[in-house]
Amino acid sequence: MAKRDVPLRWDRKMQQRLARGEAAALGELYDRFASLVHGLAHRVLDDERAADHITRDVFAHVWEHPDTYDPRQGPLRTWVATLTHRFAVQRLRATETAALVRGGPGTAEELENKVRHASVAARADYIVQSMPAPLRAALELAYFQRRDYRQTAADLGVTEDEARRRLRLGLQLLSTARDAGTAPHPPAAPPGYGGAA
């Protein structure tokens, strides 16, 4: 419990510093989360410039509305990732809808499928990045190097039962990305923020 409380303590202090208008706090937050924000935005939008805009928008929102983060609801990292996801999906939907209105190729159904696919992919990336290193290592061996659980166990120096457990748990976590993507609209916030994770 003490280990988990340390990041939350940092999250609370960061939110308080942002609420006081400390520019240095925004700089620290940017240094810590900018690559996460940009990576998630790029995963959804597949556009470098658009990802740059989303990154700027997310940090502007955090600066202007630090009180919308509630440390009791979860880590600051999750809140920032959720904002990024929401902003990026809104931008993708708006851009693609505008293209449809102008007579571009595709249908509204294809647009929703594209948004859903991008949303699931971004969520899966975030889940993999956020999972504990032992689970991530097992999944990477199994997926990218095509190792079975026995080979994964040998590579990681763990028992076969432990390798199976890590792979099963990692896959269960990843399945939540797909499940969340079946909703008609992507989630706006993690549990406790008014939406699904």
TrEMBL record:
Keywords for the protein's UniProt record, in alphabetical order: Sigma factor, Transcription, Transcription regulation
Family matches, as InterPro entries: RNA_pol_sigma-70-like (IPR039425), RNA_pol_sigma-70_dom (IPR014284), RNA_pol_sigma70_r2 (IPR007627), RNA_pol_sigma70_r4_t2 (IPR013249), RNA_pol_sigma_r2 (IPR013325), RNA_pol_sigma_r3/r4-like (IPR013324), WH-like_DNA-bd_sf (IPR036388)
Keyword Transcription regulation part of the UniProt annotation: yes
Keyword Kinase carried by entry: no
Domain called RNA polymerase sigma-70 region: residue spans: 29-94
Domain RNA polymerase sigma factor 70 region 4 type: residue ranges: 127-173
Pfam family, one: Sigma70_r2
Chain residue ranges for the region called Disordered: 177-197
Family: Belongs to the sigma-70 factor family. ECF subfamily.
Name of the protein in its database record: Sigma-70 family RNA polymerase sigma factor
UniProt organism field: Streptomyces salinarius
